[in-house]
């Protein structure tokens, strides 16, 4: 271990060139070093290995027995060291890697199909793995379970190792049965606050964005709750529940339109004041994957797919 701590890797590079060329001047030319500098390096190498390494003969320098044994091992070790410190290479055309995403169904359905389309064309051997089970959105990133999270939610201040990319604004809408009283007439904040709401619980906590916004705008007093007789852990059954009841769901507009297509449902724009500011979907990733070449390529493809 003492020898390793004092080892100068540059000397081993010089040694390989000397043993391959068996000539101090030619080795210097190959390395971009002067002949005196190579001669000094050779003296240090001889002291390090306690061996002459290059032996002068009438025919020029020859390798010592120790040098003959060293050369193949030295070349192999230096090649492996070069691969170790070189920037990793990612070739999408030949890659079979799995890229793992977590995100709610509306954002997954919006942003990931264009990405997958590009993957199938440019990286046909890769696998896209997506998880939309309700959970803490940023825990999987912290644990390294996924490469990316696409979500409208923001991380807490404690997640300092996360990077983000803003994807697109999320306009929100209400989806309900065509027979729902809210389907007709002015859609006021008072009527929204008095309605029966359904909630897809993505984090398992709280009453949802509508409730928070209505409290902030004074439509509900602090501590007052929306009437939420239905809580789901998935978006898939929303159309069936809405068609057969007075339940209203507050969803990203694009996703609401998809759910309502071909059903006895109506999608209504929310009044401007039901959200305090424009919400955006973001892509998040952890510092551990920030410079990973596969993850960098995925980010580039996801951005290209939004154009």
TrEMBL record:
Residues 7-64 form the HTH lysR-type domain. Keywords: DNA-binding, Transcription, Transcription regulation. GO terms for molecular function: DNA binding; DNA-binding transcription factor activity. The keyword DNA-binding applies. The keyword Glycosyltransferase does not apply. Belongs to the LysR transcriptional regulatory family. This is Transcriptional regulator, LysR family. It comes from Thiorhodococcus drewsii AZ1.
């Amino acid at each position: 271990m003492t020898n390793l701590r004092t080892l100068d890797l540059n000397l081993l590079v010089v040694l390989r060139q000397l043993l391959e060329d068996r000539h101090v001047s030619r080795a210097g030319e190959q390395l971009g070093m002067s002949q005196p500098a190579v001669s000094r390096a050779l003296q240090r190498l001889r002291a390090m290995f306690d061996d002459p390494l290059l032996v002068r003969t009438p025919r020029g320098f020859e390798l010592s027995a120790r040098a003959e044994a060293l050369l193949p091992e030295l070349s192999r070790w230096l090649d492996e060291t070069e691969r170790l410190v070189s920037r990793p290479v990612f070739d999408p055309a030949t890659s079979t890697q799995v890229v793992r995403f977590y995100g709610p169904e509306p954002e997954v359905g919006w942003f990931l199909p264009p990405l997958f389309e590009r993957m199938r064309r440019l990286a046909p051997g890769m696998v896209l793995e997506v998880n939309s089970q309700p959970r803490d959105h940023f825990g999987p990133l912290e644990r390294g379970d996924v490469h990316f999270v696409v979500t409208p939610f923001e991380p807490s201040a404690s997640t300092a190792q996360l990077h983000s990319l803003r994807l697109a604004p999320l306009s929100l809408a209400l989806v309900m049965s065509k027979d729902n009283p809210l389907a007709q007439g002015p859609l006021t904040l008072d009527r929204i606050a008095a309605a029966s709401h359904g909630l897809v619980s993505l984090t398992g906590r709280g009453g949802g964005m509508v409730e928070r916004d209505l409290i902030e705008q004074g439509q509900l007093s602090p501590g007052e709750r929306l009437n939420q007789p239905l809580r789901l852990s998935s978006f898939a059954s929303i159309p069936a529940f809405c068609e057969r009841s007075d339940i209203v769901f507050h969803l990203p507009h694009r996703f609401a339109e998809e759910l309502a297509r071909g059903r006895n449902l109506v999608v209504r724009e929310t009044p401007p004041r039901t959200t305090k500011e424009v919400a955006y979907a973001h892509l998040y990733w952890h510092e551990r994957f920030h410079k990973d070449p596969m993850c960098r390529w995925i980010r580039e493809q996801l951005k290209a797919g939004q154009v």
